[in-house]
Amino acid sequence: MIELSEFLQAKRRIRPYARYTPLIHSDYLSELTGGDIWFKLENQQPTGSFKVRGALNKISQLSDAEKARGIVTASAGNHALGVAHAATSFGLEQVDIFVPETAPEAKLKKLRRFPVNLHLAGQTYEAAHQAADEFKARTGATEVAAYDDRDVITGQGTIGVEIMTNLPAADLVLVPVGGGGLISGVETAVRHIKPSCRIIGVQPEASPAAQLSFAQNRAIDPYDHAPTIADGLAGGFGALPFKLLQAKPPEIVLVSEAQIRQAILALLAEHQLVIEPSGATVIAPLLAGSVAVAGKTAVCILTGGNLALDLLREVVSR
Prior knowledge:
Helix 5 (78-89) links the parallel strand 3 (71-74) and strand 4. The strands form two sheets. The protein has a six-stranded mixed β-sheet with strand order 1-2-10-7-8-9, sandwiched between helices. By secondary structure, the chain is α/β, with parallel strands linked by helices. Helices cover 45% and strands 15% of the residues. The protein has helices at residues 4-14, 27-33, 51-59, 64-68, 78-89, 105-111, 125-139, 150-166, 181-193, 209-216, 239-245, 257-271, 277-280, 284-288, 309-317; strands at residues 23-25, 36-41, 71-74, 95-99, 117-120, 142-143, 172-176, 198-204, 251-255, 297-302. The N and C termini lie far apart (45 Å). It has two domains: 4-49 and 149-317, Rossmann fold, CATH 3.40.50; 52-143, Rossmann fold, CATH 3.40.50.1100. The protein has 15 helices and ten strands.
């Protein structure tokens, strides 16, 4: 268990470098669902994604020896941006980041603005992760894991603390699920503050690793996923997130690629919010009516806004 005090310490630790993001009300989804629906706007972080929280909490606690060896990470894109921002914030000079060759150009463009060594490796996150592991073994660099790390999870969980502070009436929180760092951090933090609040994870049908992990009672990582536009949620579910959630697994809801596209368009049309597929997944169950929220207060964590322009054009044209 990660204690509430650890989340509060992480919140103070990252405060100078990350934003306390706002909660905004969704009149559109509230009317549609009969619930009281709110958005947590993590797309307003300096890197356009919540991932900066975990990276800051991890890197801020590295020893001088760990920093001296340089740091390495693998990412589908947003964690890489978080690591680059955190490393720059704390003055680290040797930073090697591995991302798939298929990473969205919007994220690559942002990454190239940072003084880091960017490596394009393979077609999937898993291929990039293997390349990062080989680099770590060869150089002795310190790894900053994307989701399977206690300090990273604690940093992500500060979102849960902020939600409970600003909206203590929340009955449920909808969380996009990939490797599990966010949902395990948010559920653990919220459980300390309001145990009755339900956490619902949302995954693409193309990559149901969390749902399968809880069904089979083992962490499935890596996971050979099908193609999905929600690249940040594709792949396996981490061992540490699984361990944190194993005793009381959250409900996991799956959404289709078409539903994710509809969610992106709805956020743009109804709220003028540009949200990437991984973040938009959380409103897909509300649009489809597959999660009952009538009479309840629900928060959707919109995890990122790094949406590629070509995908945005495709969604709008359809």
